[in-house]
Design a protein that fits this description.
By secondary structure, the chain is α/β, with parallel strands linked by helices. It has 4 helices and 7 strands.
Length: 298
């Protein structure tokens, strides 16, 4: 009896476990089927070693889809064409780019998406044509390109150094060093003359300074003389003005006297014209005029 109970418990446990597994699988299938995906192309110009179908597609590290297909681009065999299924809720925009990234040092690759402008328009299908997400070089590709350029520039630098250190240039360098040494010796011999020239220049500078002081003193003397002349001229001008004023006053008095004399002469001449006999005989009394005493009308 005890053995039969144990088998019954085990059978019930197996049935329950199987049912739970089936329910869980159904839930997973249902959840997966509810997600809607959009299809995109990506064209890469580098090796996709380490990338497989069903590899993850991440948008800034978040899983948003998978790689469906990997193959050569039929229009350009130099490129690898990827087909991606990306969750429809993922904001794939016109500035979104794709590149290959790797999980640490394992060598396993995935596709990394990155956008730059949050306000960029969405990348949509045009007349049912699957849109293409632009690609950008991966980090390894950029490092490889940088190392290639560095190696190329290093080779060019070595060639230039070899050209610079050729036998002809070494002879030119030796000749240049020899001429420089001779020039240094000549300059050393000329140091005494240069020192004397400097001393003469210092003396000349002192003489020029003394001459400038003399010119300054002379200028001050001339300025003082000009002030004296100005003062004397001012005094002389006042004396001349006073003398001329007195002369003008005397002249005005003379003219006044001449005017009175002229008026008297005019009166005398008028009297002579009226009575010429008075010049030799007696003076005739002038007849009284109108309004005067003794005036009578004829």
């Amino acid at each position: 009896m005890e053995s039969k109970v144990n088998y019954t418990i085990v059978g019930v446990f197996v049935v329950v476990l199987t049912t739970a597994v089936l329910i869980f699988a159904y839930w997973l299938t249902k959840s997966y089927g509810e997600q809607v995906y959009d299809t995109y192309y990506v064209h890469l110009s580098e090796s996709v070693a380490g990338l497989n179908t069903d590899s993850a597609v991440k948008y800034r590290g978040v899983d948003v889809g998978t790689v469906v297909s990997i193959g050569l681009n039929p229009k350009n065999p130099e490129q690898v064409e990827l087909i991606l299924n990306i969750n429809q809720k993922t904001p794939i925009k016109t500035d979104t780019t794709a590149s290959i990234s790797f999980y640490g040092i394992t060598g396993l690759a995935y596709i990394e998406l990155k956008g730059l402008d949050k306000d960029a328009p969405l990348l949509e299908k045009v007349k049912g044509v699957i849109p293409v997400i632009p690609s950008r070089p991966s980090t390894i590709r950029r490092i490889d390109q940088s190392l290639s350029k560095l190696a190329e520039k290093s080779a060019q630098t070595l060639d230039n150094i070899n050209l610079l250190l050729s036998a002809k240039n070494r002879n030119n360098f030796e000749q240049l060093i020899l001429e420089t040494r001779q020039l240094a010796k000549g300059l050393h011999r000329q140091l005494n003359g240069i020192q004397a020239l400097v001393d003469n220049g210092v003396m000349m500078e002192k003489q020029v300074a003394a001459a400038a002081q003399q010119v300054s003193d002379t200028s001050a003397s001339i300025s003082h003389l000009a002030d004296s002349i100005d003062k004397n001229t001012t005094g002389l001008s006042e004396e001349m003005t006073r003398g001329m004023r007195e002369s003008f006053n005397s002249l005005n008095q003379l003219l006044s006297d001449l005017d009175m004399l002229t008026e008297s002469l005019q009166t005398t001449i008028q009297n002579i014209q009226n009575s010429p006999g008075d010049l030799f005989f007696k003076r005739t009394q002038p007849r009284p005029g109108p309004g005067e005493e003794g005036y009578h009308e004829k």
